[in-house]
Amino acid sequence: MIEIKNLTKKFDSNVALNRMNCSISEGTIFGLAGSNGSGKSTLLRTLSGVYEPDEGQVIIDGEPAFDNHKIKERCYYIADYPFFFNDSTVENMGKLLKNIYSTWDQQRFEELCEMFPIERKKKIINMSKGMQRQASLILAFAAKPKYLFLDEIFDGLDPLIRKTLKTLIIQDVTDRNMTCIIASHNLREIDDICDRIVMLHDGSLLTNEETDSLKNKIHKIQMAFKNSPSVKTLTEMNVQIISQVGNYFSVMARGDIDEIMEKLNSLNPVFIETMPSTLEEVFINEMEGAGYGK
Ligand SMILES: Nc1ncnc2c1ncn2[C@@H]1O[C@H](COP(=O)(O)OP(=O)(O)OP(=O)(O)O)[C@@H](O)[C@H]1O
């Protein structure tokens, strides 16, 4: 269990995380979405014990995470720009990590080396971006951490490797109750795999909800009228117009779908239909609501 309590992290006067509170249950696949510079990487680095909180605490399995060797051994963090030494290979990094992680599984390491199409004896720094990420994933999954933190991991991975990665995460969550936190701008991928999604803006949490209920907060509605209502009428109903072509409207609305439909039906549309909203649409709506991009 990860407990983030009143967590603040500053860089000089820049507040990267602002009194954040959040709990992450074991066996969860947790998505971190957010605007640029909202604090996603800082949060992952603080969770994995790289950064010391300025205020508040990160508690993992009941103990403060910072400078705690026992807790560090349960966590594996793949940074958005993973660092490797000049002569690092998957082979020699495997030998190194075997001595660091008591959970290291050599047989799994061999299987993962077969699964991912990269050369285990090649210098990692000479590999492409996607191959470097694959090297990091082989090492991470062989270490069998209790908590896996992945920063922009889908970036640079081809579709087949993204599918392999998702299968590996789900397997480890199912088989050994691993907890995985994925920070990503790739909302389609986190929608696919995450049980719960947090959205960050300016170092604060905007939402923290189960993926399905998050998508159910906002509704996309298409409707057509013989005599179109005014923009003012729709705005007063808290309906946001996404597009209007003649008498045909595409709108977004927040709240209880039955109440929204009752209000819109009172305008006598000749056609009305709700469509599932995507995580990207929810993200844009949440960020605009927080004043981002305006
Ligand atoms: N090492 C650092 N030194 C100084 N400022 C930093 C450092 N790391 C992050 N910051 C600042 O903290 C804030 C949060 O940055 P962070 O990298 O955590 O955001 P992010 O959500 O991961 O961003 P992005 O989506 O653009 O990758 C930004 O204002 C950033 O400039």
From TrEMBL:
CDD domains in the cross-refs: ABC_DR_subfamily_A
Domain ABC transporter: 2-227
UniProt xrefs under SMART domains: AAA (SM00382)
This protein's record includes keyword Nucleotide-binding: yes
GO MF annotation: an example: ATP binding
Keywords: ATP-binding, Nucleotide-binding
Name of protein: ABC transporter ATP-binding protein
